[in-house]
Amino acid sequence: MTRLLGVCTWILGNPPLEAMANRLVQIGYGGVELFGDWRKYPVQPTRQILEKHRLSIFSFTPANVDLAHPCKIIRKKALTYYQRLLKYAAALGGGIVSCHGKVGRIRPISSQSSEERLFVEGVAILCEKAEKLGVKLALEVLNRYESHLVNTCAQALAIVKAIDSPALGILLDTYHMNIEEQNFIKAIHTAKGKLLLFHVADSNRLAPGRGHIPFAGLFTALKEINYNGPIIIECTAPGPDPFTPRKGPNWEEAVWTELAIAVDVLRGML
Q: Which listed residue (140, 146, 181, 258) is catalytic?
């Protein structure tokens, strides 16, 4: 099961891929959620480096674009980015593209209902593209302090059902769930059959076991719904500002420490 342990590369500040891949393998990871920047990670060199280190590409983290903005030009720019990211994912052999509301925008500019509608319209267009490319799209559930859209598993499931695309599913993240879900286990069971990705960080966004989230029960629930996808670590160094991995002096080594702790903890649960 540890082969399905992955890391979101953005938490490391997106360093050179060769060095990052080598170190991830050394501490026990089997794959990555790659930040969606095709300029930094061109297809051929990226594929060669990851194959060399026997690391899988589980998924892709998107840039912070806005599919729900009331300005048509801004929405079109976001849609174009996601469409290109889907093509990039397909070129690297498939995988799952994460999709969410603009991170850092915690209230609507127009109205909540109209921006929810615009978001769903955009996601529906992306699903058509994803189906043609053979790529999956995962709605990421974020907490209210990071985004005003899709804050609970139930909200994500409602969108998945409304769009009704075989390419669309759900991404749950324990850090966000700890803020928004009334019950971890119920949320996981709500996502049954639609859960594509599972992100892991503790309540303080450090490695599992460093906060108060009851991970053993969560992994039991994942087994109960027959989730066989990757477990992807998205912890950060301690410190303020959830929107950057750079938390101050020695932040990089602090993240690597958390990643090593995460492997040790999760090996005993998976």
A: 140
